[in-house]
Specification:
The protein has helices spanning 27-44, 50-55, 130-136, and strands at 8-13, 58-69, 78-88, 92-101, 107-119. The chain is an alpha+beta fold.
Length: 138
């Protein structure tokens, strides 16, 4: 199935509890930002909320995560998390992301997550059903 690789955006802002001792967003929080953006985008952009996904008996687990930090985000800074499905396999999706500072548009970081779809009852990898693959192919 061909992928449209449509890029979706979620606006966010760095909060006080995101800041580390160096006075910028802690590296681990960037992963949280991507996960929060994907949660938002599943419902708003793919028309399949995480709750609907879970009711169908599925979940996503992170197999690989990679981030390249370019510029630090600081307290109160607004930014946009852009994500897109770059590849889809039988049981996995490769989701790329980029975070851009507002209003400059400068890249704060980019990277990717490789997610494996699982059956929540067994915890084992599950083949991505056609109805889900079609929603992700936009």
């Amino acid at each position: 199935m061909a992928l449209g690789k449509t890029r979706f955006e979620t606006a966010m802002q760095a909060r006080p509890d995101d800041i580390d001792m160096n006075q910028h967003v802690h590296g681990s929080r960037y992963f949280d930002y991507v996960l929060a953006a994907r949660y938002d985008q599943m419902a708003r952009c793919y028309q399949m909320s995480m709750e609907e996904f879970a009711r169908a008996g599925y979940g996503w687990v992170v197999r690989t995560a990679h981030v390249e930090y370019k510029r630090p985000l600081r307290l109160g800074e607004s930014f946009v998390v852009r994500t897109w499905v770059e590849e889809m396999g039988r049981t996995e999706v490769l989701v790329h992301f980029a975070m851009h500072k507002k209003p400059t548009g400068k890249l704060a970081c980019d990277g990717y997550f490789r997610y494996t779809m699982i059956n929540v009852k067994t915890g084992r990898a599950e083949v991505i059903p056609d109805w889900i693959a079609q929603r992700y192919a936009i």
